[in-house]
Write a structure and sequence with these properties.
Length: about 650
Amino acid sequence: MLLFAFANSTARFGSEWATALLYAGLLTLFVPVAARLLSAAPSRQERIGIIVVLAGILYLVKVLRSPVMFTGFDELLHFRTAQDILRTGHLLHGNSLLPISPLYPGLEIITTAVMRLTGLPIFEAGILMLGVARVLFGLALFLFFEEISNSARVGGVAALLYMTNLSFVFFDAQFAYESLALPLGVFGLFIIARRLRRNETQRGATLAIVLTIAAVIVTHHLTSFAVVGFLVLIFLVGFLTKQSVAQRMDLGRIVVFSVAAVLAWLFLIAPTVIYYLSPYTVGAVQQMIGLIFNEAITRPLFTDYAGQGTPIWERVVSLTSVALSLLGLPWGLIALWRRYHGYLTLPHLSLRGVPLNFAGRRSNLLRSDVAPLRRGRLLRALRALAMTPRDAGATESYTGESVIPLALGVASLAYGATLPLRLMPSAAEVSSRSAEFLFLAIAFVLALGPAQRWLSGIVSWKRSAGMTMLATILFIGGFILGAGPAWARLPGPYLVSADLRTIEPESIAAAKWALAYLGPGNRVAADRVNGLLMVSYGLQRPLTDVGDQLDVSPMYFSSEFGEQAQAILDRGHIRYVIVDYRLSTGLPRVGVYFQSVEPSAYLHKTPIPKGALTKFDQLPNMSRVYDSGDVVIFEVHETGRPYVEP
């Protein structure tokens, strides 16, 4: 923790050693933990303790980056939603920057409840609540993987590998709805896995499943879609196994409830989600088609939109981590097949005259470890798969322990399809946001395959060190991919349109002044980050394409204030215009100054001209009401009759 603290402290002063200290801290934390979990020595209780401690400390890595306030873009949007609940005592208030945030208020409901119980401010209450959620997340991961594998060792290794996904350290530790919904979703899957494997149908388990799924649904749209989609996949895979009719009906009832609850919330409470997600989905599909026909605008890899590149060694490590996952998946899928294919009820098939009867013998699934593949070429493995074992287990009762592992194997196949999406601006977010869900499957498959193969029997120190090194590459590579460019991993001096590095005291002071002297709810025009601060700290109403179908950016790019700019003022009934002169000092690090529909979005070659920002001083219908040097607020006059929010 001292290394992480020193890294963040020195980074604020631009130290070149900050990044080295950060990586030293990550290695000091992860390497001994990985080595211990990969060994056969720890007891079940020790493995649980290690996973919980690792999850908690990795959460503190994010907290130490911003220890006194929320600085993430999504964090400040949810900060505003929590403020609205506290101010009014009601849910479902509008948010022009993230319209769907108030429609999934689970995070804010719990945060405000913690505030009322403890008297803590929003930031401290949110940090405390998410810290507890993160620790429980680590526990839920272990219990879920242990339950479906019947092995504490597999459970620990799979939980460790899950934490190497690119979203774990930063994205799923921020004050945002997925950070709470994901632990709830995994806990719900654990209860369902336990119910299926042990044939438990007690009312208490049923109530826990219903409450957990309901909590996920009211907390985050994507997590609820992912959990319900996986439940549907489990149900469908069950038709290919020796699942009893009673178990199939029991799982079917859970699936029907989950689908009905998700659709009811979506269409009755949150229909805006459809319109919110449509541009991302349509854009991703269009860009994929364009990539196929060599017509798409590709996204620069390992370079931000201002041209700053990633060091070569980081590129090598991150690409190696992806390659290791891709290479390990087939191995793990073969191990998964060997372990569970005896539960399938596929028809009698043949391959080049060789009969393939997939009913097979029932594997010994009560072992704590997976039987490794024999040494030899791939042909031996395929020959073993093509053998026709006696149907000794065909009449044995189905215990429910194979359907979820088989469903995870199917889900892991989607990983490769998401990687090309990272080449395109709109689709890159789709690829990144899928990692935390797909890694539930990937981590389990990797734990069953390569990890068990190389760690079975008597393990030499060389083999153990090799597996620890591979796990460390997965972790560091995932961290690099998830943390983004070097400037996004640690605090530091101001950068243009760079989220964490753009949220600084001068803009925050302007937003707080607006609330104190202009009052809340004014319709304002602002750039991406100043609009975020105005909505969160200033309680203002920035106009956006997402919330209002209005792009205000053309007012800022032209050196003259023409008819188009005046039309934007009139159409948006804009009362105040916020201008940050620092926008003219550099290119936007995230690709846009305002929003993705602005002119030349993700393709800017030169900064906004200084004259385009200073022109507001000469306009007769605007007057300067606030000036901090870099940030100026102009009041707009004569824009028609006063506009009242509906």
